[in-house]
Amino acid sequence: VVLLAGCTAADGGGEAAGVTDTSSTGPSEMAFGDAPELADAARTNPRHFPPMLEPEEPPGQMPRLEVSSDGGVQPGTVTFTTYTTPRMTEDMPYFPSFLVELDKESGELTKAQQMLTAATMFQPEPGDRYSYNIVDREGEAGAGIEVTHYVTDDELNILAKYDLDDLEGGDADLHDFELLDDGNAMLLAYRKREVDLSEFGGPSDGAVWDTVIAERTPDGETVWEWDGAEHMDLADVPDPVAEAEFVESPPSGAADYAHPNSLEIADDGDVLVSIRHYDCTLRIDRDSGDVVWAFGGPNCAQNDFEISGDPFGGPSHQHDASLTDDGTLLIFDNGNLRTGDEQVSRVVEYEIDEEAMTAELVWSYDDDRYTPIMGSAERLENGNTLIGWGQLTDPAISEVTPDGEEVLTVSLPDGQLVYRAYQGATR
Questions:
Q1: Alpha carbon distance 294, 283 (integer Å)
Q2: pLDDT tens digits, residue range 84-141?
Q3: Residues 49, 114 contacting (CB under 8 angstroms)
């Protein structure tokens, strides 16, 4: 059974429920892996099922969504993808995922599209466009390599695609995609490099995944590239990460020592990148490639800021670092390297002074939730914050006011993942 629970605001507030009920084959009933020819096709050509615009019913295999909304939301839609894990392995070569757009006030499904393999981002773009990515082949240790990013029109017809198939030693990663005004795009990538890890307790014939950021044209030309190997020191990796990646990784594998997971282009052209396994967010000068500053919590060895007002001293294993219109730094703080009662996930906002090199925590939200992977935070025009809770399923998505009141929740069945949630257009 697939249920889409829609809620409408009565007289501009309060909660009312309307439910659409359709019957279909649920994900738990599907016989994955029993069609090798389909699996092979999925690996080489991820299939785009026909998009559904303003559907009266959800796609047949789409998981149940429960939506609760009231009059305090930022009007418009919310876009996200939902998929299950594992994504692509030899034993489980394909798994369905869905692009989803919901009207936040009515709870009605406005767009949906099914994919055979994992799609991890579905975001609105300027000019009534959208973008999303598909994982063509699952990578190692969280690195989703052989990823294709697509840009579409308002009806999800593909206009352009971006990949990094010609990147020697690596390929595009799933974690972020930034479409630029001139039609170029910024992509994250992983590149494998052989490294002697014996000084860190690992194998002498080890290997690591380096961070690469590349600007690509629609024609597939790389016009700017940043190589993390030139700017990041393996000795700065926090001890828990070094133990897990350098020591426990087999010699045949590669250590995912950096794990970049978000990109943003600042107004002056600088590149903001979250490096999860360093517990650091870096601001990179677009012209020189130099690191302007590093921001992070107690495990960020490169941290340049004196942080105040934060009981945890800064974020840990963060996702989705962005600069708000007010110039503050907004981050989804997973909290992985904290322990005990401090291991909570939260959205944190810091006022940054780049001259005094100070950072003050000015807002946070957590509600005692913890998700070890994924997560997103977006500051909306009305001051609310849209939160994607990653591995959490209840809620998978929240919108909260500056006072911490939840005015939107979207819940999913256990086993489903929402990598990020985005504010869509007002229609």
A1: 6
A2: 765 555 555 556 789 999 999 999 999 999 888 788 899 999 999 999 998 876 555 4
A3: yes
